[in-house]
Amino acid sequence: MSDTNNSNRGSESLNNMDDKSKLRLVARECKKLQQDLVAAHEQIQEEKNKVSQLTQELEEEKKKRQEAEQQYKSSAAVENTTVLQAKIQSLERDRDTYKQETIRLTTENQNLKELFSAMEESMEQMKKQIEELTLKLNEANSIPAQQRSERQFKEDSLFREAFSLNDDQYIICRYPCSYGTLICHGDLFIAPLCVCFAQTLTKENNNSVILYYHDISSVERISRFSIGIKLGKAIEFTMKDGKTHVFLNFSRRDTVLRDIYNQAKIFSLPWAASVDLTQKD
To answer: Does 142 have pLDDT greater than 80?
Structure first.
């Protein structure tokens, strides 16, 4: 009954985690169950050894009893036989106890094996789900050329020219915001391989910023100003070289963080864990 309750609580806990955390949790549980199986196997072997030893002792006591019966005519021999019989009965009771314990441990061992097998199946299913989600996300971010409008083609062309990017880069989404200070207002562009900021999509834009995903160390939500709810919604990018870039004045910061997180997950970047999606603006 306790195993069922633990499984239910474990299922509820797994449902509250993201896919990668679920996978790590399942891996830890599988490792623990494997250790429990090894420990149970060692305990069963120890109990078998005890039963074997008791059986040997029982045979020795039976031999002593036979020898005592040969001297039955003397009262001392009769008394010794009674003592031996009591010892044999005690040993038989101990043997029965150990047999029952061995049966119990064998049953528990079988239950652990079944649970371990179920956990392995669950982990494989979760891996497949993660792969399917990743594939869907890749498909969602890789918009076929025939599905992009003429306006999007023009914007993508201006975008690549303004930031000197390769032809495989395009605008997944864009969000109005400010860079560093409120007076430097423009747009934050999310592309397949980078995050860019510019006041205008022209090459002459001196305030443009390009942050490639593989150069990022962490992404965090911060509050930059105490006045105005919208003005305080800022996102700080910390790069591997220690430099920081702050973008603020977002109207939909949660959505921006979600889109950045999705791109990081595609490439399995470690800094994805620093993106806090639990808080809501």
So the answer is: no
